[in-house]
Amino acid sequence: MKKTDVGVVAFMYAICIWFALMNQKLPQDAQIYPKFMIIILASLSTLYLIKILLAAKKEGVTSGFPELFKGFLPKQFFPALGMTLGYLLLLFLIGFYPATAIFMVAVLVFLKIKPVTIAITTVSILLLVFVTFNLILRVTLISGLIPDLLF
Amino acid sequence: MLQTLSLMGAGFINALSPINLLAMTLSTALGIVIGCLPGLSAAMGVALLLPMTFSMDASTGLIVLGGIYCGAIFGGSISAILIHTPGTPASAATAIDGYELTKQGKPGKALATSCFASFCGGLLSCISLYFFAPILAQLAMQFKQPEYFWLSIFGLTIIAGVSTKSMLKGLMSGALGLLISTIGMDPMNGVPRFMFGQDSLYEGINVTCALIGLFSMSQALILAEKAIVKRQEAAKVKDKMVLSGKEVKRIMPTIFRGWIIGNIIGILPGAGASIACFMSYNTNKQLSKHPEEFGNGSIEGIAASEAANNAVTGGSLIPMLTLGIPGESVTAILMGGLIIQGLQPGADLFTKYAPMTYTFFAGFVFVQFFMLVIGLLGCKGFARIAKLSDAILIPCIIVLCIVGSFAIRKIFADVVIMMIFGVLGYLVRKFELNNAAIVLALILGPLGEKGLRRSLLLSNGNPAIFFSSPVCWILIALCIFGILSPLLMNSLEKKMSGGAVADVAD
User: Fold this and answer.
1) What share of chain B in percent tops pLDDT 70?
2) How far are the Cα atoms of B85, B118, B129, B172 from residue B25, in angstroms, in the given order?
3) Which DSSP letter does residue B187 get?
4) Which candidate, B78, B82, B396, places its Cα nearest to that of B216?
5) Residue A2, SS3?
6) What residue segments make up the domains of chain A, in order of their start?
7) pLDDT higher for B116 or B200?
8) ipTM of the complex as predicted
9) pTM for the full model?
């Protein structure tokens, strides 16, 4: 048994409890189908828990993390994830094109790409999006809160 | 019959319009690029480019997605042959003999075999698409609410099938998807459910955003967690990319067998191109006049794998288009493409929207020709692209995920939903749950809920309505098959991949 599997079951139970609490606020008629789904998920999670507990008796308990996160680089992953979340915030504030330019340069610098390649990649992706979405598909991309207020 | 033939003819004429031809060229080339990049899958590529099709004509949009799908499956063989790294799991068996030929100084022959076998496999799979799809669609015409309920249950049993490691984990993923599919307005009495005060969730979770998050954003996060490694230099193609008449004659029976295997595997729920390539490889090895050459650079080995994995493409479209049952992740995403266009899979596609459907079918045929030509002419260039660093791919994928999820409804909330599903998809993959099962549940959940609740309303709560017609019983039998099929598929995959691995060891 892997400890990570217990985490998976705990996550599923947490989802079930969360939805069950929200479900109570719905009218009686509307509660039935989601309740049925919550019971199915909770039952399957319980079955899986029984399975892994039985396996624990036979095979013992291991962490599971070393196998699942083999080669995981926290110093690379978390900054990359942080930059992506920051990118979402920037999109909301300053709009698609400036936010994308900043994000592309930041990530590529962080991943140690040569300056020339950074410039080519950033310009290429901006051009690709502009031609495909603005010119061909005629989609107006996120304009941003600040430009909206200013102009 | 005559009407079908005239629709088929009109489909070919429509597919030859300049915009469709351009769509085929670009999408097939793009698919090959995605396929030959190790780490990117056909599902990821189709999900990422799905929003680009929303403003296109329905048939053109579907042709684009079909082109990416076929191109990506073929593209995987280029890196498998030249750098011994399959671009997609579907080309894993191709790497065995393909790289052996490359080591012998014949990468051109290996690539030519792969191109030709992929073309034949894909083209032959179109025959079954034309033949079986209308028959199944006629069955779908008899469906009423109870049948739709069983149909969704059948789809959900497939969830167990698409789960490779643990059936229970696959079912848990599906149940999680079903629960998420209840977000939005109650279909019977219009009550908002679990909407967190967001009006954008009124119609439920946008399936396309969920798809992009689960398949593409999660892939970018997976790439970001590992050290960026420099890819092996692709072997230079110095020999001619041609096959002699004798060689073509030799691989034709192999291609034919690969087509049959790939097609059946494609139609079966829960299986996929990765199973088909190994199954065809082993079957053809057993039936070959030169079994000793398999594993040592056999063109039959390459043809067996490539014909089968490309034959899966046409086969897998049949249950998706006719019954609305996507058997694996790529067809689930293609179904998202149909939904974006406001179309529902089923009988309507072969009656009301028949011109669009037959144009797509014809486009799918032409895509195979484009794949052959682009593949033969561009292999050397595509091999260079396979060297592209993950460090460049990561931010590019993220940007395309964001722009794609926004472009569908032009709501920023959709970008946030895509990001949430991206993180969920990453965790799902890390903890060996199944993101394809979540997607299938998101698509089938509302269908099943409506079928269940409307049937019970019609019968005043009597559940006997679910057993009231022969079609219901056929679907119940299929559900039982759906539950049992993963056991069969797992043992087949182990047997087939085990056999192929043994070849390499020998």
Assistant:
1) 92
2) 25, 16, 22, 40
3) T
4) B396
5) strand
6) 3-68, 74-149
7) B116
8) 0.94
9) 0.82
